[in-house]
Amino acid sequence: MASASEQEGGAAIRTLVERSIQRNIKGVEYFASAAPAVGLTPKETIYKRGTLNLYHYKPLADEIYRVPILMVMATTNRGYVFDIAEEHSFVRFLLNAGYDVFVMDWDAPRPEEKILNLNNYANTFIGECLRRVREATGEQEVSLVGYCMGGVLSTIYTATHPDEPIKNLVCFTTPIDFSEMTLFSHMSQEKYFDVDRLVDNVGNASPELLLTSFDMLRPSGRAAAQRTLWDNMWNGDFVEFHRKMDRWSNDMLPLAGEYFRDTVKKLMWKNQLLEGTLEVGGRTADIGNIAIPLFHAVALHDHIVPYEASKHLVALAGSEDKTEITLKGGHISLIAGPNAARRLWPTLDEWLAERSV
Questions:
Q1: Distance in angstroms (rounded) separating the CA atoms of residues 267 and 258
Q2: Helix axis angle, 221-231 relative to 207-217, nearest 10°?
């Protein structure tokens, strides 16, 4: 009769063999199957203007909070990261919790849309979407929620419209001090990077340029991700979620030329948002003007927007009711996936619930 240790060794070998078999079977399925479906929570496009789409998600709860939510996606990526999978959907979580959810999403700007600038994104687009949300709900107060550069745009809008009835400002991993954006700040130094020549000759900043810039932050990141995928190829749930996140991270959008020029010159070079000198649409974006409840979540292991770049938002805001939380995770896992579902989403719900009635 085999000893306990021999039985354990045999079980471990059987597990390894079974996983190797499943890894090969699912590896063939991985390359043979179509791209996974994403963004499946029912919604309606209630407004479209060029590169902008405004979605209204159908409610899932019997009772809805009075104050609706307008979520502003980062301009480099598509908004389905908020609804990446049914079991990992931030949008679905909010809907089940009783919130009325609207999302500003982006398409690739056309060549003729290269004229869109920071004022268009931070003022025109957000202002028009707020108006549409108020028309759809009959409520004047709206909570503005922005992710990464969507948080920057939301911050700029709130700072330049202090008298508008925005109920709450919620930001995730939002940079304020662009000098602390690590490699980005070095790659875009004025003495090396001729942004005028790029925009004047090319127009919109290509997704390949942007994707390469992000990859340079972690040069071995893709190789490490492929190794992790292979090690877990036997796990169907892991592979499915990995494919969805991989699809999103590679689904990079070009940036409108003038918006890219403004971002580089005003934010990266002159750091005007931190300095309080940024003028957008004839108004100064002074973060000290923000007096409404403010919630900012930052990621402990964020390699894109380090804490040194984002820590100034809550510090500079004039709000009496303001909260900053630092959670384990990276720039993306903070807001999407199993870790977000355990950490950020319930924390935000607890904060937002009492401020949405």
A1: 13
A2: 80
Q: What is the pLDDT of residues 206-237, one digit of tens each?
A: 988 877 776 666 666 566 666 776 676 767 77
Query: Mind listing the domains of the chain with CATH numbers?
Result: 43-353 (3.40.50.1820)
Give the model confidence (pLDDT) of 291-339 as tens digits: 999 999 999 999 899 999 999 999 999 999 999 999 999 999 999 988 9
Q: Which residues of the chain have a pLDDT value below 50?
A: none
Please state the pTM of the whole predicted model. 0.86
The answer for residues whose C-beta is within 8 angstroms of residue 12's C-beta and 6 or more apart is none
d(CA 2, CA 95): 54
**Distance of alpha carbon 209 from alpha carbon 172, whole angstroms:** 24
The pairing of beta strand 283-284 with beta strand 294-299? unpaired
Give the type of residue at 304: I
Give the number of other Cβ atoms within 10 Å of residue 22's Cβ: 14
Phi, psi dihedral angles at 255 (to 5 degrees): -110, 135
Helices 4-32 and 236-250, interaxial angle, to 10°?
40
With contact defined as beta carbons under 8 Å apart, do 248 and 255 qualify? no
> What separation in angstroms does the CA of 188 have from each of 139, 175, 198, 267?
42, 16, 12, 11
DSSP tag of 289: G
